[in-house]
# Entry
Amino acid sequence: MTSKTDEAGEAGEATGPADALGYEQARDELIDVVRRLETGGTTLEESLALWERGEELAKVCRRWLDGARARLDAALAGESAGDEMDTADTGDTAG
# Structure
């Protein structure tokens, strides 16, 4: 009996842990998984293994994107706080 990971490997997919992948690697592999599922020609078991791998890869991509969004929000919040402090400093010296 083969595991789902073995089946994904037999289908030509990477079998390493998805969490170890960078965003671009996960995205590129996900694109390949989707292409292969859309093309068809795989057995039901292979298709299920590909689907499961695609779900893992999508989660990795989502985590990377959420992290990037959080970093951007933090940078923008810091920028806004700096602008408010500059305005407050200017107001104090003008009075």
Q: What stands out?
A: The CA atoms of residues 4 and 49 lie 5 Å apart. Residues 4-94 form one domain.
